[in-house]
Specification:
alpha+beta; Gyrase A, domain 2; five-stranded antiparallel sheet; three-stranded antiparallel sheet; 8 helices; 23% strand; elongated
């Protein structure tokens, strides 16, 4: 999937969504557009707060002005003369994450994240990228639009990347809930492709990951102490 870069000015304009993202959709429609826009400029930090928890990641497909006004929102994108319409209901979100990998973004300030989606999320991603070639997908993190991706090829491995705009606090929350992609273990030893999907399975998976990580730390310390002791032994 290709990136469509958002300028800083466009990100500031589209942070009006952060305010809308913190309230119910039916309430959001009662708030004048101008008020939301003013809030995004006057208090961008406050607009990024979400009442839905410490972390919110969602991916939104484009919609149509023929759809209910309560089910869509509009934001300006690079090279477009009129705002682009997106659906409020995401195609998939942090609820469908199975594992992740974080890295420092090109801006040197924020982070990028690569997400491995669970069975439901992977199916939604494949269906979207297979049936909507040339379409775009908007990534929103804690109510702030951070990335626009263009669908150019089917994605069958359930992996999607947000290249920038992810704050450290979100990465910290991801670490608490999901293992690194390279440490992702199947829920069934008989099927290596069967990864955790339900919340219960993900909690068990994360606890097992913590146990393995702690055991690896203990083993590494033992090996280091043994190597140090061997180095101190007099040579014969």
């Amino acid at each position: 999937m290709q990136r469509i870069l958002l300028s800083q000015k466009q990100i500031q304009v589209t942070t009006m969504l952060a305010f809308l993202h913190t309230i119910r959709f039916d309430e959001a429609m009662k708030i004048p557009f101008a008020v939301c826009l003013a809030l995004s400029f006057l208090c961008p930090e406050a607009s990024a707060m979400s009442r839905r928890g410490k972390m919110s990641i969602s991916f939104h497909a484009t919609g149509s002005d023929m759809e209910s006004p309560r089910s869509i929102f509009k934001i300006p994108l690079p090279g477009e003369t009129s705002p682009t319409i997106f659906r409020k209901v995401p195609e998939f979100s942090h609820e469908q994450i199975a594992a992740f990998h974080s890295f420092k973004a090109e801006d040197g300030i924020t982070n990028g994240i690569t997400l491995k989606l669970d069975f439901r999320g992977a199916n939604a991603l494949e269906l979207l990228t297979r049936t909507r070639q040339g379409d775009i997908l908007l990534a929103i993190v804690n109510g702030v639009p951070v990335e626009v991706l263009q669908v150019d090829t089917p994605v069958r491995d359930g992996i999607i990347t947000i290249w920038k705009g992810v704050p450290d606090s979100v990465v910290d929350e991801l670490r608490k809930k999901y293992p690194p992609i390279d440490k992702l273990a199947p829920v069934s030893s008989g099927d290596p492709d069967m990864i955790a999907t339900t919340r219960h399975e993900k909690r068990i998976m994360m606890e097992e990951h913590r146990v393995r990580t702690e055991q690896d730390r203990i083993d590494a310390n033992k090996s280091a102490r043994k190597a140090e002791a061997d180095a101190l032994k007099p040579k014969e």
